Amino acid sequence: MRFEFATSQRIVFGAGALTEAAPAAASFGKRALVVIGASASRADKLLAQLQAAGVTTSLFQVRGEPTIEQVVTGVEQARAAQCDLVVGLGGGSALDTGKAIAALLANPGGIHDYLEVVGQGRPLVNPPLPFIAIPTTSGTGSEVTRNAVLTDTRQKTKISLRSAMMLPRLAIVDHELTLGLPPAVTAASGMDALSQLLEAFVSNAANPISDAFCREGLARAAGALLRAYSDDDPQAREDMALASLLSGLALANARLGAVHAFAGPIGGLFSAPHGALCARLLPAIMETNLKALQARDPHAPFLAHFTEAARLLTGNTAAQAEDGIQWLEDLCAKLEISPLKTYGMSVSDFPVIIGAAQKANAMKGNPVELSHTELNGILEKSL
Predict the structure, then answer these.
(1) Residue-wise pLDDT tens digits, 307-351
(2) Contact 120, 75 (CB under 8 A)
(3) CB distance 175 to 237 below 8 Å
(4) Could you say which of 1.20.1090.10, 1.20.1560.10, 1.10.340.30, 3.30.830.10 is the CATH number of the domain covering 183-382?
(5) Where exactly are the structural domains of the chain?
(6) Is 0.85 topped by the overall pTM?
(7) Which helix (H) or strand (E) holds 311?
């Protein structure tokens, strides 16, 4: 057995942890580009703390899914303001944008020199500027991952800027920042975290450390997601913040699978929340993977993880893998997850989406190679 483990240099978790951001920022630099999401008011407290610590700020707002163009604009703004560090406060869009900006500010050339698939995919030459990641949703785990997922609006696809050097210098996870999130955002982001935990747990690159994170994260998410969605319960919010963090730690050191391989191309073609796409795809993909393994490799070590995941999700120590899939379907119904056709997708889109998913980096971690027919069946069930 051989594996490696990497994560952010420092992680601070807990209520009130936001207060750690300003002193850390002041130790990294004097002029910060602060990348925020759609809700500008969520940054007020952070901006006041940075100012009090003597850190000048330049605010850059990201609306919707992060794009290549937004990153280029952010780099230009940061250079004009002579920023020497980057702080990301928001959901995965803000964090991924900030992560990419910090990387490009420290490296020569343009963004297409380093992008996968649509660019030259060159490795970064220099470490990024110091980057502080502060999530305000519980979903992507981007605060502890080594890539930024961006949309190429011209080619209508999602691709990554990826490097081991892109791990944030500091991750601050304060669940109080997630209180009051709209139910739809809570559902989509929470299902993204749950998808990441499940995919990393059954990944062909899973390892004992990532498995431990997945076990803890699955147990917490199973008991907390519906409560956070329905009641905005503070304890549920804390559990989901931890589950999201654990999902990022797991996926960064194991791999994902067909859920994220599909969600990327679909998200590039249609305007839809990434987490909502993952949620809709997850039950069908788990079922298809399970049946494929049972038919082709009934002694595969991954099969035991399907059963264990079902027991963690349902709380039933006698549950079988199929029970976990039914639990996922029931949860999606309770969270009012929309079918893919809601976003404009139709059967005519299947060939393009399947072709892109088969080439996606995430598909390399799927526990079994799925046929074109199986992939088509997944989309039919999720449409």
Answers:
(1) 999 999 999 999 999 999 999 999 999 999 999 999 999 999 999
(2) no
(3) yes
(4) 1.20.1090.10
(5) 11-177, 183-382
(6) yes
(7) helix 302-314
